[in-house]
Structure formats: C-alpha cells, structure tokens
Design a protein that fits this description.
Strand content: 15-25%
Bound molecules: 2-acetamido-2-deoxy-beta-D-glucopyranose, zinc ion
Largest sheet: 5 strands, mixed
Number of helices: 9
C-alpha cells in the first residue's frame, strides 16, 4: 500500500514504534547500586487509513421492522471475536475478552449516542476484482464478474452469516443476485467490531501492539458500521502495570474506527444531516490522489500559518492543518482560553499514519487522541466534540476526562512556537511549565508531572543530528557550547521537539521493572533501593525533595544519584 512505502522511507521515532504502550528504551543510565535503565519514551500510533479496495462505501441497510427500539440511542457496539482470539494462551484471551474490550466498549457506549441507529447490520460483499457497478435506482452495488470468496474487514474474514447476498454483473450485461440469499446479519447494533489477534505482516514490520480501522460505511450518512481491531499477539502484555495503558490504546484505536480518521473527514455531516464536503460522481467527495484520501472541504479541515519563533531571533512561517468544525472550535477556544483560535491543530509529523489522524502533540500532550502515548492519557471534551462534529454521534460530556495540559494558557501558547512561550516566561522569571529546559543528564534531575501524580524528568536531550531549523529553539543552554545548540530539543518528535516533563519507567536488561506513577503500589522500590524513603500507593503524590539522599546500606556507599522528587503519601 502507498501509505506504507512512504512510512518506511521516513524513519521516525525510536525503539518500539506504536499503537502503543509500553514505553521503552532510550538512554542507558546507571542507577544506584545496580545497573538499570530509565527511559521516558513515547511510541507513536500509525493509524493507517484503509485504502480504497479495503473499504466498502454506501452499504445499503434494509429498514428493519423487528428492530428493538433504541430509546436512548446509546451507541451499541457488537464485538465479534475472531478465531485467532480463541486460540491465544488463556491469560491473553481472558485479558482481551473479559477485560480490555468490555471495558473499552462500555466507556464508548456510555460516552456516545448515535444519531441514526441501525437495526441489523449486514455487510456488503467484496468483489473478486476490485471492480463494482451500481444500477440506477438500485441501492446495492454489483461486482463485475464475481464476488470475492471471502469478504474481509481488515485482516479478519467476515463470517458468512453477516453478509448480504452476492450481486454480480456478467460480461453479457446481465446483473442480478447470485448464491446464498441475504444472511441474518448482526442484530441490534450500530457498529460491528471484529476483534482479532493475528500475527500479521504489519505486526512484524512495524512492531505494533494494536491497530484498528473502519471497513464499511452505511449509505445514508456515511457512518462507519463495521470495523476491526487487531492485537499483535506477541505484544499483548498481561502485566498489571500495563493494563491502563493497553485499555486507553484500545479505546483510542476504536475511536479511529468510529470516526477520528483522515479517511473519514470528507464524509462528516452537519447537524442537519448534510455532508460538509460537496459530493460529485455517484455521491462521493473528490478523491485526492496525492494524499490517497477523499478530499475534505474547508468546512472540516483548513490550513493556517503560524508565525514561528526559532533560534537566533528568527521567525518562520509554520503551516498547520486545523480541524475547524463548530464544536471543536468552541471547545478548543475554551480549553486554551483563546477566543481567536480558528480550530484545533492536527498532528503534522510522524508520517502518513500519525499526521492528520491525531491532535497536535505539542498542544494536547496527554490527550488520548494525540499520536503517541507518553503519560496519563485522558479523553477530553475536545475529542468528544470531534465525535459530535462527525454528524454521527452525540456525546455525553460528563464522561470527558479533565485535561490539564494547555488549559487557560492563552493564544501565545496555542498559536506560537514553544520557544516564544519559554522565552516570554523566562523574561518574566516565571516557570516555563508545561515545557521545561533542564537537560537530561546523569544523574537525572527529577521533577513531578504536571498533575503531581508521577515522578518525571525533562525530556530535553541532544540528538545525533541537527534538528530541522524550524524546531531549533534554544539560544543558550547551561553548559552547552553555542555551536551545539541546533542538536538540542525535546525527545518527542511529534511534539515539535518541544521539551516537557515526562514520566518514565525503569528497565533492567531490557525488562520492564516499574514505572514512575506514584499511585501504583507495584512501583514501590525494593527496600534496599528505596533511597528516598518513598511510598507508592493510591494516595501518594509526587513531591519535590530538598536534598539528595545517601543510601547507607549500599556496599559501595553511593549516594542515590537521581534525585529531585519522589512519591510520598499525600
Ligand atoms: C491534495 O492534497 C494536497 C496536500 O494537502 C493539496 O496540496 C492539493 O491541493 C490537494 N488536491 C486537490 C485536488 O484538492
Ligand atoms: C452522562 O454520563 C453521566 C456519568 O456517567 C451519567 O450520570 C448521565 O446519566 C449520562 N447522561 C446521559 C444523558 O446519558
Ligand atoms: Zn492513533
């Protein structure tokens, strides 16, 4: 696929890429008496927009009279587990079927209502060749020659009982049904989610944990009615500390399949049910060959230019894509307290899978629909607003989670580079938070995450190569010769290399040991290594330490080299 080649040609981030927990390795640092490594990391999500042949558009769903009345219009997601999930080791199967998916779907069903509920979903069959036809006055699509032997949704073969009858046009011009009649379909559902655990080529090549997308859109409103989520079996972790991260990954992925995808922008509708992008031949929006996507109108996404301060008192023009649908604009303005903000910026980095499919990481760092998992992921009002602005859902905003990052920071924060922000704050002798400007050094200088719930470290670091000019932000840094300044930036590329404090995890010989989240009891250090007399648990918070501790029991009598903050009972 096109997308893939482009992604491969553009090397990106480090380590394990992806959708996405757990965090992994970067620098090796010696800690205390035993060697271990501390790594703050982010792994980006490659939401691959499905290509034309993989998606069936305009699937005609029959009126269904036995439909159970869906009184409150709660979104009903019907999960179908593929055989591959049943074949997993019992621990992993249990995790997926009894915990991850039920919890993720329960959250989404509580959060979203659907505007046009469907009764029974029967999927349209794929064609043997990707050639299909439509007849005037007939809502079905016909395959030229023959239907495919199997209809797939992503990597999953759709069960026969979910399929409509095959319809074909033969070479003699005669069109009609062929083979088995319409099957029973999936009743009382608004969305069918096929969940698989297949070791696909993508799992191996991209080192992904999970990926998901839509595969069929209904005809009336273009709403996705079927999609898939594949978990790469080797990457599923049953470790308790990783559950929260896996759960938000699953929610994130399903949200891509339900609506947040650059492949769906051109299909969004307004509140009256009219498409936001004009339709042309056979009711489709125009296709943009260079993007490989249906081209959205400027009622959905628009371009803007930011005046962008960089190193050496220079300013560049920085082009951005903004999501500009009404509720997103309103929520973004409120969140940042910037009444002139035109829309919410979309990710501009990370390759075809990440850019445009996520919120800009620099601006919404730990929002769950940014392109990577760094820490403390939350689904905010802005993501709920986007889901409403698709025209397909209504959202219950009391299900939104509180997002602290960027809140009330104003237009200077949301419309300028982080250099502008850091410089202004320094001039006024104020904290540069939520950014930071302390070098990742040995020993680590520890601090606290913005919400005080985890120990954190500033991710400012030296890169092996100069950063692109538009991401060079520092005119000076303590102890760094000026000719080296172009090499310094935050470790997270998709945050435009802006440095910020990040939680991290400890690794020993590549094995995950513990994270720096104060509220997780399992993170309590071994008594012999508890240099800072820390206490982890549900009520603990991160506090700044006044001085370094000395670890007396340690044979070499080293003082604990990393200090600055720790977790204590609040
Ligand atoms: C296709 O997308 C590219 C990149 O955004 C844009 O420059 C171009 O104008 C688009 N083409 C059409 C026909 O809209
Ligand atoms: C919205 O969610 C809250 C919290 O879960 C719940 O109490 C409330 O009943 C929901 N409102 C609607 C209209 O579903
Ligand atoms: Zn994603």
């Amino acid at each position: 696929m096109e997308t893939r080649r482009k992604m491969a040609a553009k090397p990106r981030s480090r380590g394990r890429v992806l959708c996405w927990w757990p965090p992994l390795s970067a620098a090796l640092l010696l800690l205390g008496c035993s060697p271990a490594s501390a790594a703050a990391s982010s792994s980006s999500c490659q939401h691959r927009v499905p290509s034309g042949g993989e998606v069936v558009y305009k699937v005609y769903l029959k009126e269904n009279h036995v439909l159970k009345r869906n009184v409150d219009q709660k979104l009903r997601i019907k999960t179908i587990y593929d055989r591959s999930v049943e074949d997993l080791l019992p621990e992993k199967r249990h995790l997926i079927k009894n915990k991850l998916f039920p919890q993720a779907i329960s959250y989404l069903e509580k959060t979203f209502q659907v505007r046009n509920p469907t009764g029974t979903i029967s999927l349209s069959r794929q064609c043997a060749t990707n050639q299909y036809l439509r007849k005037e006055g007939d809502p079905h699509r016909y395959c030229r020659g023959a239907c495919a032997e199997h209809t797939r949704c992503g990597p999953v073969v759709v069960p026969e009982e979910h399929l409509q009858q095959c319809r074909v046009c033969r070479d003699n011009g005669h069109c009609g049904p062929a083979g088995l009649p319409d099957q029973e379909g999936v009743r009382d559902a608004d969305f069918v989610l096929y969940v698989s655990a297949l070791t696909t080529e993508r799992c191996g090549q991209e080192n992904i944990i999970a990926y998901a997308a839509y595969c069929q859109l209904e005809a009336e409103m273009d709403r996705p009615v079927a999609g898939y989520a594949n978990l790469c079996p080797n990457m599923i972790s049953t470790q308790a500390q990783e559950f929260i991260g896996m759960l938000s990954t699953v929610k994130h992925e399903i949200i891509h399949a339900l609506g947040f995808s650059a492949g769906l922008f051109a299909f969004y509708h307004d509140d009256d049910g009219n498409p936001l992008t004009a339709r042309y031949a056979e009711g489709f929006p125009p296709f943009n060959d260079s993007l490989g996507l249906y081209q959205w109108s400027n009622k959905v996404v628009d371009k803007a230019v930011r005046l962008w301060d960089i190193r050496g008192n220079k300013m560049l023009r920085h082009d951005v894509f903004l999501l500009i649908t009404p509720r997103v604009v309103e929520e973004a303005r409120k969140h940042f307290d910037c009444p002139i903000l035109e829309g919410m910026e979309l990710e501009n980095q990370g390759g075809m899978g990440t850019e445009l499919n996520h919120w800009e990481k620099r601006l919404l760092e730990n929002e769950a629909m940014t392109g990577s998992h760094t820490q403390n992921r939350v689904f905010s009002r802005i993501t709920l607003a986007l889901m409403e602005d698709t025209g397909w859902y209504k959202a219950n905003y009391s299900m939104a989670e509180k997002l602290d990052w960027g809140r009330d920071k104003g237009c200077d924060f949301v419309m300028k580079s982080c250099k502008f922000w850091i410089d202004r704050k320094k001039e006024k002798r104020q904290l540069v938070s939520p950014y930071c400007d302390t070098l990742r050094s040995n020993p680590l200088q520890l601090t606290c995450r913005q919400d005080q719930k985890a120990v954190a470290v500033c991710n400012l670091q030296k890169f092996p190569k100069e950063l692109p000019q538009e991401y060079q932000y520092f005119d000076s840094l303590n102890g760094v010769p000026s000719e080296d300044l172009p090499y310094y930036g935050g470790s997270v590329e998709i945050a435009d290399y802006c440095p910020f404090s990040q939680e991290f995890s400890w690794h020993l010989s590549g094995e995950f040991q513990r994270s720096s989240d104060c509220r997780i009891m399992e993170n309590q250090p071994d008594p012999l290594k508890n240099y800072g007399a820390e206490k982890y648990g549900p009520n603990s918070v991160c506090l700044i330490q006044k001085s370094a501790f000395v670890m007396a029991q340690c044979r070499k009598k080293l003082s604990y080299p990393d200090w600055g903050s720790g977790c204590y009972q609040g």
